[in-house]
Structures are given as C-alpha cells and as structure tokens.
Give the backbone structure.
Amino acid sequence: MPNKRNPILLLAICLSLVAGCRAQATVAPTQPASAIVPTQPSASRTLTVFAAASLTEAFTELGQQFEASHPGVKVVLNLAGSQALSAQLGEGAPADVFASANRKEMTNATVAGRVAGGSQKTFAHNKLVVIYPTDNPAGLAKLQDLAKPGLKLVLAAAEVPVGKYSLEFLDKASQDAAFGTTFKDDVLKNVVSYEDNVKSVLTKVVLGEADAGIVYLTDISLDNAGKVGRLDIPDALNAIATYPIASVSDATQPDLARAFVDLVLSDQGQAILAKYGFLPAD
C-alpha cells in the first residue's frame, strides 16, 4: 500500500521550519562591513595635577611628555592662582599633585593635611617684569613711570603669589632714593583692578584694558613675547618666586604622582621649564 502522510502534520512541520528561519534572521542580521565602527581605546587612568596659572604652558608640555611615556594615562591640569588651588585642596578636592608659585600656599596645603610635611621640593624660580601694550599708550620708559598720575595699572590681588611679589618690589623700590619713599603709595593709586591670577593681568594688558601690569618673566616667553612691551626690574629690587611641588598625600594615583614629580625634577623636565623662562631649581 502507498505510504500516506497526514496533511495536517506536514503543514505543522512546514510552519515550524519557516518560524525557525525568521527567528535566526532576527538574532543575527546581516551587516555590511562599512557599518561596523571600531571601538577606540580610552585612557584607563587619570592623573590630576593642580598647578599655578603661571605654569600653564610648561606643564601642558610636561603633561604631554608624561602621557607619551605612560600609555593609557591622561593628565588633567587644574590651573589657577595658587591661593585658589590650596583652598580647593583644603576643601577636599581630589588631586594627585600640587605645584605652587610660592611656599605659603604649599604650607597651607600641608596644614590642611593634603600634603605630607617635608615632602615638597623646589623645582623652579621666577621673577617679575613690568609689561605694557605694544603701542605703549602711557609712554612708559622707566620703572618710575608707574607712579605717573592717571596711569591705568593692573595687578594681581595681594593673596595671589604674583600680587604679593609685586608688593615686595614696590616696598624695595620705595626704600631706594631713585624712586622715593612715596613710590609704592603713588603706584597703588593707579591700580584699576586686582586680578585673581597672573594670566588675567597679562590678558588685560594685551587687550589694551590697562597701560601696564606686573607679571612673571615666564608669562611673556615664546608665543606671548611679541604681544607686549616690557620693563625689566633689577634683581636688587625684584622678588624671586620659589615654586615647590609635592604629591598629594591621599592621591588616587600615588605611583603616577611620584612619577610626575620625578619628571618635573629631572633633566628633561628642567629643560622644558627653562624653555619657558623659568630659572633653575638650584
């Protein structure tokens, strides 16, 4: 006898096979190779460096050097006045390294428990220079001209390291017969604004919003050299700035923090700092 099949059973088998094929197409759809975007590797570790604003250019390059020698590490710079940075540290802001433009703010960070006493090391020095717009609207020719009535002078605030150093210069000059005892008072009468970091002083002078300002020598190095005119301050009257650096005691990346400090103190790091006008640590 011929083999007879149940038509209902055959229909059920066919429907099952079709459904299976559709399910396979849904799980593994065909995708053109051009539509596949490769995943880019991301930095696996971040090193946070708090650095004085005057270190902007030098530490940007140092950060790039550090990243190049430490694959997978991203250096994030928090650049501001040293007094602002030490205040942030005192409030518990996370950081791995602190580089200050004076010893006072490093001491404040130590008192706050964020830097271990005795761990900081001097890595550079700096000094002051008087700057003015390239067209010299006030006709500045000598340092004594800072006391000319009507001059628009911009300084950093007294709590900012460069502001404190500027006042030290004025104190020294006022004790010099070539300037006169009223020199400091006469100069301060000309101040039209006090800024919270040295880069703001530089910017206002470059933009012509002031006739003169006092910044660090390093602030007018390289790219900024042609943006302003300058009057040098003799070393006898200048205030030499000292820059200390230290790992933060509760750093999230203590090994990287130590390595970054070592880079700054190394011959390579010192050469980069010198390129931007910093005086050597020793």
Notes: The mean pLDDT is 88.
